[in-house]
Amino acid sequence: MSDTPRAICFDMDGVLVMSEDHWVSIQRDHILPTAAPNDDIPLSAITGRDYTEVYPELDAEYDLAVTREEYEALFEEAGERIYREHATFLDGAHDLLADLREAGVSLALTTSAPWDWIEVIDDRFDHLRHFDAAISAQDLDGPGKPAPDIYERGAAELGVDPSECWAVEDSTAGARAAVAAGMTTVGFRGDGDETDLSMVQHLADDAESLRAVLLQQ
């Protein structure tokens, strides 16, 4: 256990909460075609990021047919449906988080999701009880992922230097944020996709392999 991290920051979507397949489908088939019917916006432009930050970048590059308020409403409606009806919790995640706590590891949730969605997930899966701190992109004064601010905040709330903290991420934007903060980063491929995670130090495919990486078992 000597190599077990002192502290770990967990992303939520695509790591603990299996929602990414639903998000990919609704973004590809509804949100992006509605926002820009005459353009082909790649999913990579928005995946893993705070949806409330992305509109100005998209508006500068693409021919958007919706206002910022309409764009955000598309995400809010989709998120409510996905988290209440479709998302599942990663098999084995409750046991993993409990075992990390028992091993003396401090835990933070560091997610681009707004608090409304975090609370829906907590009502369904009771995940916040495992964490010493929980930070939404809504809580930041600075930019969200891929900027390092949310991970720097997570480490600060856990009382450690980012260099002493690990992060678990599934998206390119999230992994870049954690690496930029100076954290040892585990790329999680629980949904089996081919997201660019070339910048991370470790990879895990499921809860079992994630346990092996984080608990050195």
Task: Tell me the layout of helices and strands.
Blueprint (H helix, E strand, L loop, with lengths): L6 E4 L6 E2 L1 H16 L15 H11 L6 H19 L1 E2 L3 H10 L3 E6 L3 H11 L7 E4 L12 H10 L6 E5 L2 H9 L3 E5 L13 E3 L2 H8 L3
Helix pairs in contact: 1-3, 2-3, 3-5
Listing every helix as H and every strand as E from the N terminus to the C terminus, the arrangement reads EEHHHEHEHEHEHEEH
Distance between the termini: 8 Å
Number of helices: 8
Low-confidence stretches: none
Strand content: 5-15%
Q: What structural class results from the helix and strand content? A: alpha/beta
Spatial shape = globular
Largest sheet strand order: 5-4-1-6-7-8
Q: Strand tally, please?
A: 8
Give the biggest sheet: 6 strands, parallel
Give a concise summary.
The protein is an alpha/beta fold and 217 residues long.
Describe the structure.
The strands form two sheets. This protein has a six-stranded parallel β-sheet, sandwiched between helices. The protein has helices at 20-35, 51-61, 68-86, 93-102, 115-125, 149-158, 172-180, 207-214, and strands at residues 7-10, 17-18, 88-89, 106-111, 133-136, 165-169, 184-188, 202-204. The longest helix is centred in the middle third of the chain and has 19 residues, at 68-86. The termini are close together. The mean pLDDT is 93. The protein has 217 residues and is of the alpha/beta class. The radius of gyration is 17 Å and the shape is globular.
